[in-house]
Amino acid sequence: MPAFRTLLAGSTAVALVLALPVMAEAEEAAAPASIVLDPVMVSAERTEKRPVDSLAPVSVRTSNDFARFQPLSAGDLLDGVPGVTTSVSAVSGPGTKIGIRGMENFGRVNVMVDGARQNFQRSSHGENTMVFIDPELIGQVDVVRGPSAAIYGSGAVGGVVNFRTKDAADLLRPGETFGASLTGTVGTNGDGRRGTATAYGAVDWADVVVSTSLGRLEDYEDGDGTKVVNSGWDQQSALAKLTLTPNDSHMLRVSLIHNKFDFESGTATVDDLTTTANTVTGTYHFTPEDTPLVDLTVNAYYTTTEQEETRISGSPLGRETRLEVETPGFDVFNTSRFDLGGTGHALTVGVDGFQDTVEATRAGGPLEFTPAGERRVLGAFIQDEIALTDRWSLVGALRFDDYTLESGALESSDNAVSPKVTLGYELLDGITAYGSWANAFRAPSITETLINGSHPPPASFRFVPNPNLQPETAENWEVGLNVAQDDLFLPQDKLRLKASVYQASVDDYIAEYFNLVMGRFGPNFAASTYGYENIPEAHLRGGELELSYDAGFAYAGLSLSRARGKNAETGERLQSGLGDHATLTIGARDRDNGLDFGWRFTGRRDLDVALPDDPTDAADDPAGGYLLHTAYVSYTPPQLDDAVTLRLTVDNIFDTTYQTTLANQEAEPGRTVLVSGTIRF
After folding, report:
1. Which domain holds residue 541?
2. Where would I look for the motif TonB C-terminal box in this sequence (predicted)?
3. How far is CA 617 from CA 406, 476, 541, 571, in A?
4. Tens of pLDDT along 219-267?
5. What is the chain's percent helix, strand, coil content, to nearest 5?
6. What distance in Å separates the CA atoms of residue 125 and residue 459, rounded to the nearest whole number?
7. What is the pTM of this model?
8. Is 169 helix (H, G, I), strand (E, B) or coil?
9. Is there a contact between 196 and 213 (Cβ–Cβ < 8 Å)?
10. Rounded CA gap, 320 and 503, in Å?
11. pLDDT in tens, 337-363
């Protein structure tokens, strides 16, 4: 795609252009103000560190990143993260599907909020596995790509995404101990509007945040000016979060998150839906000062997502559908730090588990596509981070998983052991190379294993359960490079780079099939079947790069990713989030006048083929791509003591008509102007 090549070539040119003023001002510039500090995450190794120090493909996005682009959905929070694809469909409403490296749906990506799994799934003609989150509640997102996070819970063959809700530290200005804020946002495409009120404080050993948000989005128009019917929604959300740290040894955090979305779905027939997602988490952290052998974390959570649906147009009028997924779970682990034989160790041992309970009814009977049932998953893990020398480091991990599925008289169970080994070497100060081999295991979901019943007329084919469905096992090889350089061109500037290439094999990959039987006068739906089966092996490969440079008065970020995947037996291209993706952001700050402004380019090509005539040609004939432009500016008048911030964002400036995946039924929004204002008290 020429536009995509232009973007890649342009990124190099932009980097050179940015370098000119940097070099010109190098001699006279003082230490630049407003350098953004490195975020910290509990990385793939479960120990706190900067992403650039983790021997794994990890990325972090913070509230500073979110504010520039005024996100409307959970997917917007992940824009520009290499290897990550998201999709929001008008058919499925405001829920966001998240994929990593071509792996998506049914828990292949472990999506969490404050460490609590979000396992809602409903099979239909729209998106399949979705998460319902108001981005106004989120302060940071941590992403681990691939099966590198062996100790983050079962099923993460694609990776991990953890949305962390806001803390008082995300909101307090320097010198403050408490405060409050009001934010209002309006948008041009779909007449979007949202209001958020937040109170927060950090006094002595207590940190508290209380926030509530109301929003509404009408049906939007695509780049051609065509209105996408039933693409809007109403939203309500709330957050209450309390953190107690009576001393340096103890920390207790409790959070309650509520999200409610009302929307309509369909065209020929229309359903009115209400989706309510609630998450309660409790975390206790014990780190006694007198021993490095104890660094204990105990996390318990309860998540429930309920969806109620009523047919308001078409037949059968008034039909009611209800689906609820409840997930209680826990996660307990301890890290012991010690020296042994001249090497430093961080030994982590833990256990985790969760249970999904699915209740699904339609008109008093079972819900087609999505069966009711229970899934129980228990796991145990051990990992050792070893500092072999000043330059060499080694990470070894082993995980055990056991699961059971039940639905009526049908039952399925299995277990597996998943190892991981990573070796890192610091080539030069701030430059580290690593190689990793990791296995991961995913238990089949209730739907994949136990789907049963018949599709509604007129296409009354049968859903066929497969209690003999085998779990997926993924083997991933990866080579990566981390670069962290400070004071490179100017005092206190920062350059960060993470790059990696990978190749993965997934044995017993679970895929859907539709066995359409043709009769004398057309399809014989009574004899046709739909279900899930194991593909002997699927292959995935690709590469990712994430580069950022911050000089205080100017900054730039570039992310690139390439993902390919196919059925190893047939050569058929996998239809899940593959292709090439590039995002380039360039910006500048004028702190003296309270300005932050910039431009973002987003390009994709070789998207999924929707319905190829010959599936065997799909790997060689991908289609689809787009190039988008976004501009943003924020103004925080210093004369008002930073009490007011005004923001303007223009998405899809040139009104491009595009789809994030060609399998979508509708185009994405055209040009959208977002204006917001925040007042702090």
Report:
1. 2-680
2. 664-681
3. 39, 26, 18, 8
4. 999 999 999 999 999 999 999 999 999 998 999 999 999 999 999 988 8
5. 10, 55, 35
6. 14
7. 0.89
8. helix
9. yes
10. 46
11. 999 988 999 999 999 999 999 999 998
